[in-house]
Amino acid sequence: MPAEDNALIQPPKLNELKKWQEFSFPERNKSSKYYLALDSVTPGADEVVRYVVAVVPGSGASKSVIYEGMHCNSGQYRAYAWGKPDQTWTVGKTVNWKQITRGFNQWQYALTDRFCFFLESYNPDLIKRRFDFPVPERTLETLD
Question: Is the whole-model pTM more than 0.90?
Fold first, then answer.
């Protein structure tokens, strides 16, 4: 796994993310909606793809917003920071990589299809092109 210093990882500004795309996967909580901020997808030189996901519960509870990284070659992910209602971040203090598994509410498994190209070497340009398409502009506040 890449050696990381959390102080060097800067989450994107939540109020600047405008390309939220809903995505689905079989093992999701059917009453919740899941969004990927396409404009947050950042393939790093360290072979970690970083991104922001928002989970909007159907119950009307608060959204969960998470800044994560996925390392395709090892099949692992980790959370860097969690969004707060004032659109700032709480940054994690430790590096805890976890294995990507298929299971209930494991959106990381669903995102491997979008981020990881298992028959090719890590290709940041290809990853960025995969998310470079028009979507209606939305802010985090408008996700429902």
Answer: no
